[in-house]
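Budget justification, computational time. The allocation requested in the original proposal was used primarily to generate structure tokens for proteins on the priority list. As evidence of use, we reproduce two of the resulting records. The first is shown immediately below.
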Amino acid sequence: MSGLLVLAGTPIGDPADAPPRLAAELAAADVIAAEDTRRLRRLAQALGVQPTARVVSYFEGNEAARTPDLVEELAGGARVLLVTDAGMPSVSDPGYRLVAAAVRRGVSVTAAPGPSAVLAALAVSALPVDRFCFEGFLPRKPGERLGRLREAADERRTLVYFEAPHRLADSLAAMAEVFGEDRRAAVCRELTKTYEEVRRGPLKELAGWAADGVRGEITVVVEGAPAADRERPDATELARRVTVREEAGQARKEAIAAVARDAGLPKREVFDAVVAAKNSANNSE
């Protein structure tokens, strides 16, 4: 009889935000896989729990190697609890490999929901929350970062990003360049912690503020593209959008399909626009 994998959300700052179920899962687990075992011990102490489970580390550096062992534990009937430093496992944190491997092995997977930096930031951003998409961390290299942002330039949904404090100013400046200096955004710093701060304003203004240096855990919420940006693009604009995606590393066929989907047009029309642009460039040489 196979066991059960439990993904448990942990507080993103204030331990008092931990749901009662987290304490119960810590007490019931046979094995606890923790991103940081020291933080786990501090959290358990704050919750008044003394886990009897075997505790193992499970972080970015060892998750590939440790996943098979944990799957064997699960297949043997163990109740394995997976926790990360803050928020939900597998959401920009270790966990995806273990979930995928457990499902392939036929092991049941469930979640004990908890605090979320994504939802907390959305809620306090004062930006539209009816539709949103989570983009995780942007690439570290400037060129790759610009490419990723250009892929989202026409996204109508509110965008949510995680960012390291030492890269925040550069990322906000890149967002202002790609999305427009006046695009509204909110920088949420140290959510639920003692020095919580939410800065709201145009991207250019926020980039200037961040240039002086920012500390702490950062979540950035950016307003989606206005409806006017989704007016029917002409052939030149369609070809440009395909080129942007290709420069970001996407295959041409996939780029054409994505541009056609975003614009609500047939793929053939986008393909013809790309061919026309290529012919025009060749004739001008």
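The second record produced under the same allocation is shown here.
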Amino acid sequence: MAHDPSSRAALSQSRNRKDTSKPSNTSSTPTAPSTPPRGAAAADAGEPAELGADSWAGILAPRLAQFAAVARHEHVTRAAHELGMPQPTLSRAIVRLEDDLGIALFARHGRTLSLTPAGRAFLASTERALTDMERATESVRADADPTAGKVAFGFLHTLGSETVPGLIRTFRADHPRIRFQLVQNYGEAMIERLRVGDLDLCLTSPVPDYPDLVARRLDEQKLRLVVPDDHPLARRKRVRLAEAATELFVTLEPGYGLRRITDALCAEAGFTPRIAFEGEEAETLRGLVAAGLGVALLPPPAVPRPGVAELTVTAPRAVREIGVAWLDGHPDTPPVTAFKKFLLSRRGLLLPR
């Protein structure tokens, strides 16, 4: 399971901050192309090569397997038989490759060929490239396998100890070989990872509302006012949030969904919370509350924490919605489709009661 490195494992005392087309050369003597392909020029300039039709990669990729087969057999006819293509077509392809490169890759000896020094050097790189392509193909096909593929799944830290393990256990009862890449982070970071393709699905709160995403509400979770067990409010079972208006709060950092919900609920109750400490983990905040450093609005813990009292908030209605999100228009592999369908079937049943 991965934690995004951009999520800093830090706890800081609060301070004021804002949220923030080439002509054909039929000569028997290869000649260098008059203008290098765009990808080669970019590489010479120290820039990333563009894989366009006029880049070296675009020109060479379809011919590497042909070149490697001829190099293995040192015979065009036998290589053509292996590749299942006409011998004249393969011969022309090899000549065109040499013309494009401006380098003789083979020395001709009647019907047989042998690699030139340049050809041997080119073959070594070609074989590595073909091996890498084979591995990449096997990897993406394995990830898309309906019964043993992979799902990249992100979720909030507060859902990691109980909710997500339970979900995966239940899902894998019917899909025992499907694999998961699990990423814990805060909501906005996971949404960005959805957009760049690092994640297939994520559980987050609040339920996002962006035009490039599809999001579905799955459940809601009550938030509690957590106070030290020797606090005057600790003897209560219920409290109006306005009764904590004068308290110091410990909260998650700006950018976290729970922080936005906390700020919004306090505003609805008629006050702006005075922030003493900001952190990244709900259980760290509970520890700060137990140490008497403030109060907090938090979801229920997986395991009761000593040193604190957890009060039901009667007004305003203190809940957070949990939803699943994915990139709109993004094609799903069969494993992702299966897990998405499973999550949507858990509406109202996602969280422990």
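A brief technical remark on that second record: The first strand starts at residue 2 and ends at 3.
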